[in-house]
Amino acid sequence: MSLPTTLTALSPLDGRYAAKLAALRPLLSEYGLMHRRVQVEVEWFIALSDAGFDEFKPLSEAGRGLLRSLVLRFSEADAQAIKDIERTTNHDVKAVEYWLKSRFAEQAELKAAGEFVHFACTSEDINNTSHALMLKAAREEVLLPTIDRITAKLGTLARDFAAVPMLSRTHGQTASPTTVGKELANVVARLVHARERVAAVKLLAKMNGAVGNYNAHLSAYPSHDWEGFSRNVVEGALGLTFNPYTIQIEPHDYMAELFDALTRVNTILIDFSRDVWGYISLGYFKQRTKEGEVGSSTMPHKVNPIDFENAEGNFGLSSALLTHLSQKLPISRWQRDLTDSTVLRNMGVAVGYAQLGYDSLLRGLDKLQLNEAALAADLDDAWEVLAEPIQTVMRRFGLPEPYEQLKKFTRGQPMTRALMQGFIADLDLPQSEKDRLLAMTPGSYTGLAAELARRVG
Question: What's the rounded Cα separation, in Å, for the pair 324 and 320?
Fold first, then answer.
């Protein structure tokens, strides 16, 4: 059987949803890992040429240009060539080294210095820096911009609907009113904080040899400042943060921190997706329909909130993987075992499901239409929520047992405007306070909600 790749893919990220993750694929795939390995090997090689060693003179501008063009123009064909070499070496990092040397064949300057490719490095010097570069690109180019789009969209909706009153529910029961904008502003504020945590994680890397002590480096050049040299490559050439204390592997604590921060974003957006799902169910929001789409295979009237359901499901998958990564990666038997390498190959899957959730959520938000009539009707059926302000004013003026009076009056019977205003009229309060309470409606009892919503973000 021969079918298109998208139909035979085991993961829906590379099948059904492949087009939605096109921006992540070159960054977090095996191709992306190979690309970053080439970048690290090239920058280490160039730095060695500038280290002042008699055996390796500074490279010419032409030589440097050729090397960096290998990174800039790295292609799928190059990745496949490395993969072909790996079939012989059975070692993925060594295959990159041999591929680089093969590209030196017609350049005498580079060919002469070929043995300085991967000089004094262990595979993890290349891998840990490459993984950090992959995460850096994914965070800067895809994840943060998409989180920012969601935050901006919610911020706009919060301000647009800042003054639209809405009945709150606590424990599923009618509660003090708010506004639609304030409910959205709450999510914006949480996202802004969570986004700061994602952006603030320093991406660490090391290039200190087989067990983290520069053993091989010092055996070749005992008087060279290898720690300073490595720091310059990691921070100056690669734009990462240098970790001076490691075993054979960089211990991945920063990865755990980053993945936990992304899980927090997922959790906030799961919470929001469920709330919007509920608001759609209550009729607070309608969903724009698209020509040709069906909502149910048998019930023509339905427009299901599938985007928010898809978002919730994908965020859950992402968080499950991210949590496993954050709990597993910082644990290594002695200097290292291979379990970190095994699970790191799923880094793109974990992030991919988060990105897929973001995409679903944005599509869902673009379909929402506020149903102010439903919001107003719901409020008008909930005059009991004014028991809170009435009993609070009664407390201010020292009336006896205000809470108990309202409890007895409101529980067990439907409240109407007439009933509530009749209760107010009989209270021993200054007339000005009675007038203020009599003018109050469920829709006007929203406190600072509108002001808070307008200034969020």
Answer: 6
pLDDT tens sequence across 160-211: 999 999 999 999 998 999 999 999 999 999 999 999 999 999 999 999 999 9
Determine whether 168 is an active site residue.
no
Active site residue 171: yes
Query: Which residue among the candidates 171, 297, 301, 432 is catalytic per the annotation?
Result: 171
- Among 87, 119, 151, residue at a domain's last position: 119
Indicate which CATH number applies to the domain containing 367.
1.20.200.10
Contacts of 4 (CB under 8 A, 6+ apart): none
Give this prediction's pTM. 0.92
Q: Are residues 29 and 81 in the same domain?
A: yes
3-state helix, strand, coil in the chain (%, to 5): 65, 5, 30
Nearest Cα neighbor of 305 from 321, 286, 328, 322 is 286
Domain end position, chosen among 94, 119, 144: 119
Instruction: Report pLDDT digits (tens) over 93-124.
Output: 999 999 999 999 889 999 999 999 999 999 99
Q: Considering 60, 219, 281, 296, which one is annotated as catalytic?
A: 296
Question: What CATH number did the domain enclosing 37 receive?
Answer: 1.10.275.10
